[in-house]
Design goal:
2 copies of one chain form a homodimer. Chain A has 370 residues and is an alpha+beta fold. Chain A folds into 3 domains: 113 residues, DNA Polymerase III, Chain A, domain 2, CATH 3.10.150.10; 119 residues, DNA Polymerase III, subunit A, domain 2 (DNA Polymerase III, Chain A, domain 2); 113 residues, DNA Polymerase III, Chain A, domain 2. Helices cover 16% and strands 44% of the residues of chain A. Chain A is built from 6 helices and 24 strands. Chain A has an 8-stranded antiparallel sheet with strand order 6-2-3-4-15-14-13-10. A 7-stranded antiparallel sheet of chain A has the order 11-12-24-23-22-16-20. In chain A, helix 3 crosses helix 4. The termini of chain A are far apart. At the A-B interface, helix 2, strand 9, helix 5 and strand 19 of A face helix 2, strand 9, helix 5 and strand 19 of B. Strand 19 of chain A pairs antiparallel with strand 9 of chain B, so a sheet runs across the interface.
Chain lengths: 370, 370
């Protein structure tokens, strides 16, 4: 086996597949990258058995072959090599030699046959979406998946395709985030729950160009993302996702329109008074055309006042400030609409065009208005 | 007490004195910043009893006073406040109120009388040096102080003033770093050992302008750095520093001149093969007009070859690669001169103009040339 790489294509290929290399495992082969040059192109693959990534890197095959190599070591080496062509050879006994300019490294590889490759992908049911939209949609919903595994379904996101719309939902028991994206074509209905970890890695790998597409293929137990020269395959989370629609209501008693940045900045400042594990609510007191925000903790107290437009009743309601912050951070609008029913019912932050909906449950606090 | 600050001057003042706020202590008052507006200016001071920093911030004193405030909390708050004037008041009971735009924070301060201020500074013996030179000189020597406290003197740097020269020396038992800086004036002879921690903090605080000066005042047990609106006072390390001069020799059997960047890059690459705590030497085999570098470890092997100019004998010698790397990184010259005596004696990397000298002890390895 003898391959010649440009340093930068090799590096970017390694960085892409590294996302599927587990940091700790008892199976050393999982910490490897497979270099496969047996099919007329040079492919790098990593697979942690939940998530597998394969990418093609530019290079010249002088002698075809396959070998596995310890991923972190190979990645560090590629970074430190001189800016020159990299010649990789592997001999019969599995010893790899890297020659780059005057530098020469020798180290043992691993038998490629130990390596588990990608599951077989059927290319039947799919959608096409711009890299930019997919990356944004993940960012705008991923924060409200559950962090612990008590309920596996909550650790993933529901991807629903209906005609020319993709709807993405995440929830953790305290809040629900929903984003809708228009697609260019009409597709067959589809409904899968994709692990949060997969989506996080996808959004890190995706260059995110608006004029470049990602194809998402749906199958029985897997989902597959294809873009540029890269394929990402992930297991799905099995089970029936929560019926979210019945939790959503259009009724409200109070509805406000407020500058998003001012509201976000003020809530962020209030968190100064919160030490970790301390669960102090921020209290919003909406009266006439202003909101008074206040938070009290063992460290001190904060008050702030913001102007707003209001329809309906006055209300006083408390929230976990982090939940409001995480939703407001991913909303691009200058002003947001928030509707309330009563101090014990969720609030809804809704996009005018219906492209987003964030539902957040309030928290109890002493001194609520009747 | 009532003070009005511009956000940015307050922030930069806090950042400066924060360097003397210990991260963990059993004395809560040490984690505070003293705000003192009793002498016609607003001064912030922090003091961890080894190192004390005082800086003056711009602002308006509407009512003089002094109060101490928890440093990390105050720093975070200043960062998160809106871009507007900050009004700080403290009442008789020590409650601090911060008003900035519509935001209002209240939290308890601490009695200023608990706070230990700066030691008294005599302004007799001193030198003046450019901020840039001091910052560079520290960076170029600080890496070879000892990390553990077995020998206190090794955890500091020797500052020696002789006529119009400042000489800075550090050593850790395996290597010695010496830098000389020309001063604009002639000063009285002086010799002190300054703690490495102090020098690290000074080099972080110093803006490092070439046309701005630092005054260094020497006293019995303290050293004091004055620049811009800031004063840093540190304890000295007591005791007789090592007699370094007798360890330095001008004799050599081999002397080479080599491109610094190529040598540094090659040695840095070799460290890929070293896992922490693994003590593998890099072996330099100098023969005629080239150097072969090699390193073998459990992970693999590396070889490289560099061209050089040589005077004297061939030599094969081993070093801890980190020691070579740290010295080469802080040398600005394109080419370096290295002289050797034999494989058991230190090598010397010397500046042509005498401005620097790095001595590094070799390590034993099997297969040394006679």
């Amino acid at each position: 086996m003898k391959l010649v790489f440009e340093k930068n294509s090799l590096l970017s290929g390694i960085n892409t597949v590294m996302k599927a290399v587990p940091s700790k495992t008892t199976l050393p082969i999982l910490e490897c990258i497979l270099i496969d040059a047996t099919e007329g192109e040079i492919a790098l693959t990593a697979n942690d058995m939940e998530l597998a990534i394969r990418t093609v890197v530019k290079g010249r095959i002088e002698e075809p072959g396959r070998i596995a190599v310890e991923a972190r070591f190979f990645s560090e080496m590629a970074r430190k090599l001189p800016e020159s062509d990299i010649v990789l050879t592997a001999d019969e006994s599995g010893v790899i030699q890297i020659v780059c300019d005057s530098t020469n490294f020798r180290f043992p590889g691993r038998d490629a046959s130990e390596f588990t490759g990608l599951p077989v992908i059927e290319h039947e049911k799919y959608i096409s979406i711009s890299q930019f939209s997919l990356k944004e949609t993940i960012k705008q919903t991923i924060f409200s998946i559950a962090q612990n595994e008590n309920n596996r379904l909550m650790t993933g996101e529901l991807f629903q395709v209906h005609e020319n719309e993709l709807k993405v939902t995440s929830l953790d028991g305290h809040r629900i985030s929903i984003r809708k994206v228009k697609l260019k074509d009409v597709y067959e209905d589809e409904k899968v729950v994709i692990p949060g970890k997969t989506l996080n890695e996808i959004s890190r790998i995706l260059p995110g160009e608006a004029d470049q597409e990602v194809l998402i293929f749906f199958q029985q137990n897997h989902v597959c993302f294809e873009f540029d020269q890269t394929v990402v395959v992930s297991r799905l989370i099995e089970g029936e996702y929560f019926r979210v629609d019945q939790m959503l209501s259009g009724d409200y008693e109070t509805r406000i329109r407020i500058n998003k940045k001012d509201l976000l900045d003020s809530i962020e400042r209030s968190t100064l008074l919160i030490r970790e594990n301390d669960k102090k609510p921020i209290i919003l007191d909406i009266e006439e055309s202003k909101m008074e925000l206040s938070l009290n903790s063992a460290l001190g107290s904060m008050k702030d006042e913001l102007l707003l437009q209001k329809q309906g009743k006055d209300i006083m309601i408390g929230f976990n400030p982090r939940f409001l912050i995480e939703a407001l951070r991913v909303i691009d609008d200058e002003e947001v609409d928030i509707s309330f029913v009563n101090p014990k019912a969720p609030c809804y932050i809704r996009g005018e065009d219906g492209s987003y909906l964030y539902l957040i449950l309030p928290v109890n606090f002493s001194g609520a208005r009747a």
